Amino acid sequence: MSKLHKSKELVRSKHIRAGKIILKPSEETGEHIPYRREEVIIILKGNGLIIIEGKKKRVKAGDVVFVAQDKKHNIINDSRKGLVYVYVVAVFTHHLSFKERHYNKHHSQEKQSHKHGGN
User: Fold this and answer.
1) Which residues contact 66 (CB under 8 A, 6 or more apart)?
2) What is the distance between the alpha carbons of residues 86 and 8, in angstroms, rounded to a whole number?
3) Which CATH number is correct for 6-93, 2.60.120.10, 3.40.50.1370, 3.40.50.300, 3.20.20.30?
4) I want to staple 96 with a disulfide (CB 3.0 to 4.6 A). Which of 28, 42, 100, 115 is the partner?
5) Residue ranges of domains in the chain
6) Model-level pTM greater than 0.85?
7) Which parts of the chain are beta strand (E)?
């Protein structure tokens, strides 16, 4: 499976992040953990597989999946058509450690730099 995918952040505020992900056939998001965050995934188009803490679940358009904080998960498009979904993440910044806040700030600045043509 390829970890390449198209992502567009739709909303970014102090406590909420939301975006749209498009996975082509054989693409996946790659395993990740929403540290001290909760996430809702809404499947808009297509079907695929979500794995949360090793438990596999088939998903299709119209499904809504909740990912509890600190739960490792991955979304895989194992179909022959595109998989499109929206994610909404609750960000609890007041609970983040200094290291996590620093990482999030640096990562955010790095993404902004790339958006505007920086290195």
Assistant:
1) 38, 39, 40, 41
2) 9
3) 2.60.120.10
4) 100
5) 6-93
6) no
7) 6-12, 16-23, 37-45, 47-52, 55-60, 64-67, 73-76, 83-91
Bridge partners of 86, per DSSP, are 20, 42
Write down the residue that tokens 């983040």 correspond to: 96
Between CA 85 and CA 33 the distance in angstroms is: 18
With b for 16 or more beta-carbon neighbours within 10 A and e for fewer, the 67-89 pattern comes to: beeeeebbbbbeeeeebbbbbeb
